[in-house]
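Whiteboard transcription, Tuesday session. T.W. wrote the structure tokens on the left side:
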């Protein structure tokens, strides 16, 4: 079923949809509908997206948007944006017009944010410590930075 594709990563979703399109071309609508629960209309939509985007797989990845000025819809992202605004942008207004310097200092801050700054929501751990403890990445994958 198409709904079960949500568990895949974006690249896997695109690859799976491409396989469904090829299956459709080889076996037709009935077999595709029975095997994947996908009808001709959806296949046509995916093919159109592929054609419009030069055959790039990203065209088959669903994009989800939230409504503007609706913080309850995605509270985690809104809180992150507020933290960046309060802890970095408000303190660097003087360099905001120098794109290169601003981006460099923002990148440094984001490294600090993810590797040194403790987060209450993560049981007073940094995000990188939290991910490593949960088995999301190995210690070997850390790169050397200025922090």
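and on the right, the sequence the group agreed on:
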């Amino acid at each position: 079923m198409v709904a079960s594709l949500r568990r895949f990563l974006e690249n896997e979703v695109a690859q799976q949809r491409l396989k469904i399109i090829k299956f459709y071309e080889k076996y037709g609508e009935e077999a595709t509908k029975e095997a994947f629960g996908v009808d001709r209309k959806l296949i046509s939509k995916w093919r159109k997206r592929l054609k419009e985007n030069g055959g790039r797989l990203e065209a088959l990845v669903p994009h989800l948007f939230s409504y503007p000025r609706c913080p309850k819809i995605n509270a985690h992202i809104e809180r992150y944006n507020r933290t960046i605004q309060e802890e970095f942008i408000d303190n660097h207004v003087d360099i905001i017009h120098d794109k290169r310097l601003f981006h460099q200092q923002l990148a440094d801050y984001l490294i600090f944010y993810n590797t040194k700054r403790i987060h209450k929501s993560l049981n007073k751990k940094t995000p990188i410590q939290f991910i490593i403890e949960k088995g999301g990445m190995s210690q070997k994958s850390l790169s050397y930075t200025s922090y």
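Someone added at the bottom: The chain has a mean pLDDT of 82.
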